[in-house]
Design brief:
It comes from Persicobacter psychrovividus. Belongs to the sigma-70 factor family. ECF subfamily. Pfam families: Sigma70_r2, Sigma70_r4_2. This protein is an all-alpha fold. It folds into 2 domains: about 1-95, Rna Polymerase Sigma Factor, Chain: A, CATH 1.10.1740.10; about 115-180, Winged helix-like DNA-binding domain superfamily/Winged helix DNA-binding domain (Arc Repressor Mutant, subunit A, Orthogonal Bundle), CATH 1.10.10.10. Helix content is about 80%, strand content about 0%. It contains 9 helices and no strands. It has helices at about 5-10, 15-40, 45-60, 70-95, 100-110, 120-130, 135-145, 150-155, 160-180. The longest helix is centred in the N-terminal third of the chain and has 27 residues, at about 15-40. It is elongated and about 60 Å long.
Length: about 180
């Protein structure tokens, strides 16, 4: 269903039409949001829980959506913030240095039987997990989701130039990790 039709349903006065609009919204974006989050947190259960949280927030705060950006961009921003907050909480809750969180996530990549990929893809996933969260986020959206820098900037709330710099630094670090691994 087209984005503007989903928005029309969600803004409707009747509860039944709004409910249908939310169903359409989930059908349209749930899988993309799940994989966006999963690339950051690795674990299926964590990604699944966070995806649910994202859609609860979307439902609860839809009245704050002003239409200044695409609905997809607004949802991705919520998803990105949820993933980053989850990683921050995890670090703070257990007083884990960022390096240990990276190590834990990299270890999960090795343990996940339903993460497919050949050796090169697994090495790439591990290299991405070693990036600082902001670079990881920008890299994933540009490389895997093929988003334009303007969309990424809107999602992460940074400048286009800042996003380009984050992507460039991420690529250089990944290349270095892959060469030295």
């Amino acid at each position: 269903m087209e984005e503007h039709l989903i928005i029309d349903h969600l803004q409707a006065e009747e509860a039944q039409k709004r409910s249908k609009g939310f169903k359409y919204l989930i059908e349209a974006y749930q899988e993309r949001v799940y994989w966006h989050i999963r690339k950051m947190v690795v674990d299926h259960d964590d990604a699944d829980d966070l995806t649910q949280e994202v859609f609860i927030k979307v439902h609860t705060h839809f009245h704050q959506f002003k239409g200044e950006s695409a609905l997809f961009t607004w949802i991705y921003r919520i998803a990105s913030n949820e993933a980053l907050a989850f990683l921050r909480k995890k670090r703070n809750k257990f007083f884990i240095p960022i390096v240990d969180v990276e190590g834990e996530l990299i270890q999960k990549v090795d343990q996940q039987e339903y993460l497919d990929g050949d050796e090169i893809q697994l090495r790439l996933k591990k290299a991405i997990l070693r990036l600082p969260p902001q670079q990881q986020l920008v890299f994933n959206m540009k490389y895997f989701d093929d988003l334009k820098y303007e969309q990424i900037a809107e999602i992460v709330g940074k400048s286009v130039g800042g996003c380009k710099a984050n992507y460039h630094h991420a690529v250089k670090k990944i290349e270095s990790f892959l060469q030295n691994d």
